[in-house]
Amino acid sequence: VTTIEMKAPTETVDPTAARVADHQRSDGRIDAVLAVVRARGGRMTAPRRAILEVLLAGGGHEHLTAEDLVAGVRRLLPRVAESTVYRTLTALEDLGVINHVHLGHGPSTYHLTSRTHRHLVCEHCDQVVEIPAAEFAGLASSLSNTYGFALSDEHFALVGTCGACRVR
Ligand SMILES: [Zn+2]
Ligand SMILES: [Zn+2]
Ligand SMILES: [Zn+2]
């Protein structure tokens, strides 16, 4: 799945530079995530660390399915059982350090919860566009005020047609 990251139009951050910086920081970020796991009473096991390393590789900008994560973890821990990876994903999700998002009809993909963004998916080219979570603030407060409904905007992507496909 290809991903592009969209900043709000008023921001002038170069996404390429941001990715390089993310990548260079990834060692420190693993320790930060591990510290959160420990603070919440979680044990640090080799599969947990491996999953976090795979999610942080490349700056954490990929959307990895459980199957992708099994393959990635096995590059670090060749003998790990698939069921162990699945159990570990659930445990890390329960600890609140990772979550999953449904980008479309396929399997869900995993993220570090520290990477707050939301998703738009193009139905024509399958491109994933990452947008700031703040884009949903107006809708979330309107749904809450009008219907008493708490929106989980991080759980699913919005689906539509990207700018490039619209002009094709
Ligand atoms: Zn994402
Ligand atoms: Zn498209
Ligand atoms: Zn789900």
Write the layout of secondary structure elements.
Layout: E1 3-5, H1 15-39, H2 46-56, E2 64-65, H3 66-76, H4 82-94, E3 98-101, E4 109-112, E5 118-122, E6 128-131, H5 137-147, E7 158-160, H6 163-166
Parallel strand pairs: 1-6, 5-7
Antiparallel strand pairs: 2-4, 3-4, 5-6
Helix pairs in contact: 1-2, 2-3, 3-4
The structure holds zinc ion (ZN) (3 copies).
One zinc ion binds next to helix 6.
Written overview of the protein:
This protein is 45% helix and 15% strand. The chain is of the alpha/beta class and 168 residues long. It has a four-stranded mixed beta sheet with strand order 1-6-5-7, with no helix packed on it. A three-stranded antiparallel beta sheet has the order 2-4-3. Helix 3 packs across helix 4 (82-94). The longest helix is centred in the N-terminal third of the chain and has 25 residues, at 15-39. The protein is globular and about 45 Å long. The two termini are 20 Å apart. Mean pLDDT is 85; it is low at 10-24. Bound molecules: zinc ion (ZN) (3 copies). The site of one zinc ion has 5 residues, from loops.
Q: Estimate the global geometry from the Cα principal axes.
A: globular
Largest sheet: 4 strands, mixed
Q: Give the SSE string.
A: EHHEHHEEEEHEH
Instruction: Estimate percent helicity.
Output: 40-55%
Strands, count: 7
